[in-house]
What we know:
alpha/beta, Rossmann fold, 2 domains, 5-stranded parallel sheet, two-stranded antiparallel sheet, globular, disordered N terminus, binds iron/sulfur cluster
Amino acid sequence: MSRNIEYAEARSEKARSAATNDSAEAELHAGSRGPASGASVAPEPAQPLRLFSYGGGVQSTAALVLAAHGKLDFRVFLFANVGDDSEHPATIEYVKSVAVPFAAEHGIELSEVTRGGVNPTLMTKMKRLESSLPIPVRMDQTGKPGRRSCTQDYKIMPLAREAKRRGATPESPAQVGLGISFDELERMRSAVDPRIPWQRRHYPLVDMGVTRAECIQIIARAGIPVPPRSACYFCPFHSGEEWRRLQRETPQLFERACDLEELLIERRTRLGRGAVYFTNQGAREGATLRVLHAHEQLTFASDATCDGGHCFT
Ligand code: SF4
């Protein structure tokens, strides 16, 4: 494992000029539009399909830069968008205004994939009257996160469907890169997911020994802004600091998260089920986000995170 990563220098003036032309045509492809889901992209029978799961955060943006500079062998990056009403707006804005033009400038495809269907976004699913909740809400009293389906339904499967559509098969599986950094290698999973035999997971940043701090350097040296942490703004995996930052920097989003938590508690109560909360501290104390904030108690650390490398990367 080499930790001696040679970073490419910032883009030349010529490349910047090319960016102006190319980025004008760059488009984030969604739904049935563009190369993300159009029928025009033919599979490459001679070589295994190589896709990178782009999360819009620090690690996968560093992977995008490394690919752009020839340090990583991935030319297709797929952004699984959980929904413009669910993902933090700063991430959506970063992907559209920074990552997509940067990718286009370097001849890399960066396309969007979505779940589609009846509940096209995570927020629409949660607002429906359902007894099971897709996100990792904290269970009454214990504070432990409940089983979640959000990552599987809104990130893993849209990407897997796209891999299959592009020709991946169990006999010729797609190589899917995930943005786990070397300092987070405990989040790695085995290469094979038995539910998706037409894919193999790869962790190129771990292989290269690149840490999150080095990812930030890689991005900065490429001359593009470092992205914010990518996650749904209401994710119950947030730490106390992340909730405080949400409240401080985007109070309207914090309010929306409070409203959603209260809606879920009210619904669960009506169904005769135990309350659920967005914080482990709140679950243990029976206090909502709004109450914790009012008492300046959003001070806890997160005790869990999303594994698999599909969220927060
Ligand atoms: S960020 Fe949190 S709520 Fe959003 S998909 Fe990932 S685990 Fe689920």
